[in-house]
């Protein structure tokens, strides 16, 4: 990510924070805008052209999205294109990121991170589903409908919108990658860090509370736990936060012992 894009992303996030009321329609419209801009090289080129006056880019946003979008969404898009982006692709990614953050804001009490994590596990455990969602030959809208049907009654409106929108706008990215990145963005928007815990069996509520408290203290930020059950760890836990891995599993200790004996 170029420095221009980093600054533009920060400015877009600040603009979203300044919106008095963000609802699920705001997020839906931002996803639609990302899809429209990403699907048109002419539109993305015009909106990412830093040599053009800000007013010209703003007028393009008004002409394309003004007739159908809420004024708040149009204003956000105008704020986004007012910044300089390193590339047209980064601009599309920036609009998409703002859509994910908006969905998170729209349902503050929903377990959006958890919903996305659980769906990512469903995808990981079903190769046929992952293939269907990742196929370049599949109809984009049909992928969205499939995700909506799978999540109906099982996930929040925000998580459903995020997942269904992302599988229609993959841009050479894998479904699980998209879901995991979205989960991290939702957590960041809510001031949390996501920890993936791999255990041989489900944690009890008291174990989850203690682990959450310990990790929050260690990393200096609230931590949200997502648990993966894997009998192969035998016992103990393996915890991953971003690129940091804490492996206290029995399987890891046994592997270490085998290596020492072999050496």
UniProtKB/TrEMBL annotation:
Which key words are in the record? ATP synthesis, Cell membrane, CF(1), Hydrogen ion transport, Ion transport, Membrane, Transport
- Which family, according to UniProt? Belongs to the ATPase delta chain family.
Q: What is this protein called?
A: ATP synthase subunit delta
Q: Which gene encodes it?
A: atpH
Q: Which organism is it from?
A: Microbacterium terregens
Q: Which domain of life is it from?
A: Bacteria
Q: How does it sit in the membrane?
A: Peripheral membrane protein
**Subcellular location, record wording:** Cell membrane; Membrane
**InterPro entries, per database record:** ATPase_OSCP/dsu
Q: Name one Pfam family in it.
A: OSCP
Its function, per the record, reads: This protein is part of the stalk that links CF(0) to CF(1). It either transmits conformational changes from CF(0) to CF(1) or is implicated in proton conduction. F(1)F(0) ATP synthase produces ATP from ADP in the presence of a proton or sodium gradient. F-type ATPases consist of two structural domains, F(1) containing the extramembraneous catalytic core and F(0) containing the membrane proton channel, linked together by a central stalk and a peripheral stalk. During catalysis, ATP synthesis in the catalytic domain of F(1) is coupled via a rotary mechanism of the central stalk subunits to proton translocation.
């Amino acid at each position: 990510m170029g420095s221009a894009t980093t600054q533009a992303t920060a400015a877009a996030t600040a603009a979203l924070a300044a919106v008095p009321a963000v609802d699920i329609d705001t997020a839906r419209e931002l996803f639609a805008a990302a899809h429209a801009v990403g699907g048109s090289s002419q539109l993305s080129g015009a909106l990412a052209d830093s040599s053009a006056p800000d007013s010209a880019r703003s007028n393009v946003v008004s002409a394309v999205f003004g007739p159908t979008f809420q004024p708040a969404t149009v204003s956000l898009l105008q704020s986004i294109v007012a910044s300089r982006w390193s590339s047209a692709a980064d601009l599309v990614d920036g609009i998409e990121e703002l859509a994910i953050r908006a969905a998170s804001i729209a349902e503050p009490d929903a377990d959006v991170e958890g919903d996305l994590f659980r769906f990512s596990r469903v995808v990981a455990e079903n190769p046929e589903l992952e293939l269907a969602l990742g196929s370049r030959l599949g109809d984009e809208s049909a992928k969205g409908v499939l995700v909506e049907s799978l999540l109906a009654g099982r996930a929040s409106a925000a998580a459903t919108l995020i997942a269904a929108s992302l599988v229609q706008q993959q841009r050479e990215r894998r479904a699980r990658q998209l879901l995991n990145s979205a989960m991290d963005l939702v957590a960041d928007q809510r001031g949390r860090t996501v920890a993936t815990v791999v255990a041989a069996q489900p944690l009890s509520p008291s174990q989850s509370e203690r682990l959450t408290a310990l990790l929050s203290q260690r990393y200096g930020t609230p931590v949200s736990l997502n648990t993966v059950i894997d009998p192969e760890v035998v016992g103990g836990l393996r915890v991953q936060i971003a690129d940091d891995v804490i492996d206290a599993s029995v399987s890891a200790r046994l592997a270490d012992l085998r290596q020492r004996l072999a050496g």
